[in-house]
Amino acid sequence: MAAAMDWLPWSLMLLSLACDSHAFYVPGVAPINFHQNDPVEIKAVKLTSSRTQLPYEYYSLPFCQPSKITYKAENLGEVLRGDRIVNTPFQVLMNSEKKCEVLCSQSNKPVTLTVEQSRLVAERITEDYYVHLIADNLPVATRLELYSNREGDDKKKEKDVQFEHGYRLGFTDVNKIYLHNHLSFILYYHREDLEEDQEHTYRVVRFEVIPQSIRLEDIKADEKSSCTLPEGTSSSPQEIDPTKENQLYFTYSVHWEESDIKWASRWDTYLTMSDVQIHWFSIINSVVVVFFLSGILSMIIIRTLRKDIANYNKEDDIEDTMEESGWKLVHGDVFRPPQYPMILSSLLGSGIQLFCMILIVIFVAMLGMLSPSSRGALMTTACFLFMFMGVFGGFSAGRLYRTLKGHRWKKGAFCTATLYPGVVFGICFVLNCFIWGKHSSGAVPFPTMVALLCMWFGISLPLVYLGYYFGFRKQPYDNPVRTNQIPRQIPEQRWYMNRFVGILMAGILPFGAMFIELFFIFSAIWENQFYYLFGFLFLVFIILVVSCSQISIVMVYFQLCAEDYRWWWRNFLVSGGSAFYVLVYAIFYFVNKLDIVEFIPSLLYFGYTALMVLSFWLLTGTIGFYAAYMFVRKIYAAVKID
């Protein structure tokens, strides 16, 4: 752990130096300057739905295709997210208007969808699929104008403008299905200030779309692929009948507007969608509760401990002390190695690996280096950091295993490198098989899976072995008291010392400190929202570490006062009690917030939730365990033992 903390400033310094190469824009992406009538490429990312949780490629539906389809080379994070970025036939020129243009029209003939294609399009519309496009790496958004519910005249009602990611593929009305076949693109540009005699350059700063459904008969197309749209709201929408062939036009228009938004601030529209006030309220509430309880717990424990230690150290009252009950009576057994020390040290090693990875990722993201504009960067960084943090996980696991009188360090290192990652890989592989069966772009391709296995066994495993070797060779943790040869008998425990009751009690405080932020994280994962409030998340993470440590110390103190010295496993399990509440919250979120009804989307949700809960339990359990271990060593070092 200490080694990890020593390494952290250097890693952050290196990362900051790496990002200084593009100091004018933190995420490390250079702006593209366009001249008048330069082509602005519109690319498609994927189709998503919060109802099915299965992303699909853009051309999985019968959209108009360009003469040559070119896929962008994706990073690891993009592949794992299901992004398949591909070119589209939309012809957009900088600051050049287009009234109406027909896509894939051959000699003025409409597109004919077969019965099978019509059925597929209708199915995707009923499943609430959204289409995601990008222009100059900016995602398309649909503007929603909502009227605030304030009393007064209708004319004075304020408009609340919100943005929805992507655009709806279509809509249903009275059991009929309609497709959005006309897209009105509204692109905003910022004119760059230049010296005299230089041509103006433009930068794209916002990308909006107004999707419309216009039936074939209302669109008048000519042989030059131009078209005329009906005026006003007189047209009928384009219906898709899944039982027969359907004829329609795919059309689009382009409108440009000048904007005062500068290029460096162009993502603000997408990242300020959620209410920031509720985050501040959540943080202040959590800080007040945590520090209030911290003060009470610290006062009680310090006062009680001082009294205990003073009593135990009175030399003239040795006989009375021996008759008393309390934590001193188990001094000969408190450091007795637990059952399965190899598994315990392996899990704690993985917990240290997770802790280092999460701390660095959140901190670096908080500095703005993992912006959503760098697609997949967050997930790619997390994967690589977890691999490289194996050296610290191995070191801490090896040293603890030696402290617990373990001898088979090679087996222990292998267990540390494979136990938690093996469970994660196994669950993901099973879920991936189901996603493959649905032909979704969310399925991890076989070459990527092989690459992940190579990273696991080629980077993470050797680093864990390296760390384990040095950790096992290092001097074990110095326990202040000797362990008796014969174990002490444990008295019968009260009902509230039950393990499950302990988990319920210990999990409330850490979960209460973070549950509001958890809602936004769940929304980002399951409802295709952007999450970029890493400053708040970093504060929440600090509060979580503090609250887990305090609760863990209190729980181990009560346990030792009850003369139960089997604290190693119990403390690890109980400290991760907030993971149980995360599971309960995930079930609540599934029932109340999501509209998932099918088997495979439900399986995906609970499969990935199980991984989140397992990882969260490892993280909080490890934080609590090391806090309790330091506390136990401290109090027994302060007592005179005969």
From TrEMBL:
This is Transmembrane 9 superfamily member. It is a multi-pass membrane protein. The chain crosses the membrane at residues 280-302, 346-370, 376-401, 413-437, 449-472, 500-526, 532-560, 572-591, 603-632. Keywords: Golgi apparatus, Membrane, Signal, Transmembrane, Transmembrane helix. GO terms for biological process: protein localization to membrane. PANTHER family: TRANSMEMBRANE 9 SUPERFAMILY MEMBER 4, TRANSMEMBRANE 9 SUPERFAMILY PROTEIN. GO terms for cellular component: Golgi apparatus; membrane. It is found in: Golgi apparatus; Membrane. Residues 1-23 form the signal peptide. Belongs to the nonaspanin (TM9SF) (TC 9.A.2) family. It comes from Lynx pardinus.
